[in-house]
Amino acid sequence: MLLSLTKTCQMNKNTPHVSFVLTTMLLLFSIACSNKAKTEQAAISTFALLDADTVMFNSFVDCNMAEAWIGDTFRIFPGKYGEDTVWGAAKELMFADGSNAPEAFATTAEGFSRPKLPEVAPIGQPGFHGAMWFETVYQSDEDRSGKTLYAVYHNENYPQNLPYNDSTGQGYINHLWPQGLRGPATAAAVCRIGIVKSEDGGRNWVNKGLFIEDLQARMILKPYNTSNTFAGGVGDPSAVRSGDYLYLFFGEYSYPMPYDSATYNKQTEWSGQCISVARIAIKDLDDPQGKAQRWNGNSFGAAWNGTGKPIASLQIAVDSGGSAASSPEGGFHWGPSVSWNNYLNCWVMLMGKVTGPSWAGSSIYISFNRNKDLSTGNNAQQWSTPSLLLDRPGYFLWYPSLQPLDTEEDIRNKYTCMNLGKRARLYVKFIKPDKSIYASAHIIEFEK
Q1: Is the bond leading into 223 cis (omega within 30 degrees of zero)?
Q2: Distance (Å, whole) CA 319 – CA 334
Q3: Measured between alpha carbons, how far is residue 15 from residues 2, 20, 196, 328 in Å?
Q4: Domain count, the chain
Q5: How many whole angstroms separate alpha carbon 51 and alpha carbon 337?
Q6: What is the rounded CA–CA span in Å between residue 234 and residue 419?
Q7: pLDDT (0 to 100) of residue 358
Q8: Segments in the chain below pLDDT 70
Q9: Which of 292, 259, 260, 254 is nearest to 272 (CA)?
Q10: What is the C-alpha separation between 125 and 418, in angstroms, rounded?
C-alpha cells in the first residue's frame, strides 16, 4: 500500500511476468545464499528461524496476505485495486485457490482470477474513493458454507481525488500539502481502513463503509512533514477475532491533536504514533462506519475518527532511536500481522521497522501477547517488547506474515495467517529500488 518508488516493477504494466520472475529469482537466490545464520535474539526463547527451500510468489503483493478457507479450498486475495492519483488506476487485486496454502501461493500469474469490486465513485460524490488493498479476511461463523466474508482493506486517497467536504468533514485540503513519493509535483497519500463484504466466497464484493480514519485536522503538513510518504492517517492493518469483537491492529501516522505548524513538536507527534488498536462488534460489520472504538489509554473509548493511544510496549523510545512518522529518519514499528498460535496458546505479532526515508528498514520484529481474551482490562495492550526476527541489510523488508504449511495438521485444522500451529512459513516482501519480490526462505518454529 505504501506507494513507493520501489513499485517500479509493479507499475510497469508492459513488463511480461516471465521476465519479472526470472529477474526476481536471481534476486531471491542472493538473499537465500546469504541466509545461513539463525536468529541470535535471546530476549524471547519461544521461536527459532530455520532456513528452508526458497518459495517465490508469482503475483503482485503490497500488503498483508488476506485469505480464508472456502470449504476445502484455500483462497488468497493479494493485490491493489482502484483509483490512484499518483500511480494511476490499478486492477491487480485478484484471488487464487489451492487445496492448501502452499498450493495457492504457488499459483502462476495467469492462474489468478479477478473479483468484482466496488466501483470508484466520481469525485465529490458518495461512495468508494481511492485505492484498496485487502489486509485481512474475517469469515462469518453464522454461514456454514463459509462463503460470507468481510475483508478489512487499506485505502489511500489524496486531496485531488477526495477534496474536503464541509458537510461530512471528510476529505483533504490541498494547502501546504506534503510532497509524495514521485517528487515535488506529487502529493503524499492519506490512508484509511474500511470493510467490504462478499456472500459468494470472494467473487463479488460490496463496500460497507469505513472502519476507522483520521480527519484533515490531524494531517501533518509543510514545513514539518518531509517523509515523502503519508500526510497522516491509519493503515497497514491486521484484524483478529476475540470474543464478540474484531480487533484491528494498525499503523497510526497522524498528529495526536490538531496540527498547527506554530506549535508543532516532533516528540508530541512521536507520542501518538506506532502500532495502535481499535475494535468493532462482529454484529456491526454490515454497517461499520462510526461503530468502531479506539484504545484511549484506559479503555476502548475513543471515537472511530478520534485520537487513540498507541501500544506503548511497541513504541521505540526517543533515546533508542524513536522518532516521528513525518520525519525522514524513521524510528517506529509498523505493518502488524497478528495471528493466534494454538501451540503456544498466545497471540503473535510480526512487524516492520522504519529506519529511514520512504519507509526504509531492513528488519522484521516479533512480539507476543499471552491474553487470549483481548476484551478484559488492558489485555489488548500487553505485548512483549519486540525482538529481532530477521535482518537483511541493503533491502527494505515489508509486510511479514506467517503462513500455514501443507502438513496434515495444518490442513485438518484449516489454518490461515490468523490461526496457526507450532511451525509456519515466514513470508516477507524484499525490496530494492529497482526490484520487488514477495517470498519465503524460512520456517519459524515455536517452542514452549
Answers
A1: yes
A2: 19
A3: 21, 7, 31, 31
A4: 1
A5: 21
A6: 24
A7: 87
A8: 1-45
A9: 254
A10: 36
The residue range of the domain holding 186 is 5-446
Dist CA 41 CA 7 (whole Å) = 31
What is the residue type of 442?
Answer: H
The cell numbers describing 267, all together, are 516528540
CATH number for 439: 2.115.10.20
Residue with cell 486475495: 77
Q: What is the pTM of this model?
A: 0.92
Q: Are 160 and 187 in contact (CB under 8 A)?
A: yes
The C-alpha cell 476484551 sits at 375
pLDDT at 1: 52
202 Rama class: left (phi>0) / alpha (psi -120 to 50) / beta: left
Beta carbons within 10 angstroms of residue 35's beta carbon: 16
| Closest C-alpha to 100, from 323, 416, 361 | 416
Q: Bridge-partner residues for 252, per DSSP?
A: 234, 274
Question: Is the Cα torsion angle 77, 79, 82, 84 positive or negative in sign?
Answer: positive
What residues contact 13, with CB distance under 8 A and at least 6 apart?
A: none
Three-state SS at 373: coil
Q: What is the pLDDT of residue 273?
A: 97
CB 250 within 8 A of CB 236: yes
Element (H, E) at 29: helix 17-33
pLDDT of residue 7: 36
- The identity of residue 77, as a single letter, is F
Give Cα 324 to chain centroid, integer Å: 19
Which residues, 6+ apart, have CB-to-CB distance to 22 below 8 Å? Answer: none
How far is the C-alpha of 349 from the C-alpha of 383, rounded, in Å?
9
Residue with cell 501533518: 220
What is the phi/psi pair of residue 424, to 5°? -155, 155
Amino acid at site 137: V
Residue whose cell numbers read 495467517:
417
Q: State the DSSP H helix or E strand holding residue 293, giving kind and residue range, or none if neither.
A: strand 293-295
Torsion angle of alpha carbons 195, 198, 202, 203, nearest 10°? -120
* Nearest Cα to Cα of residue 65 among 42, 88, 98: 98
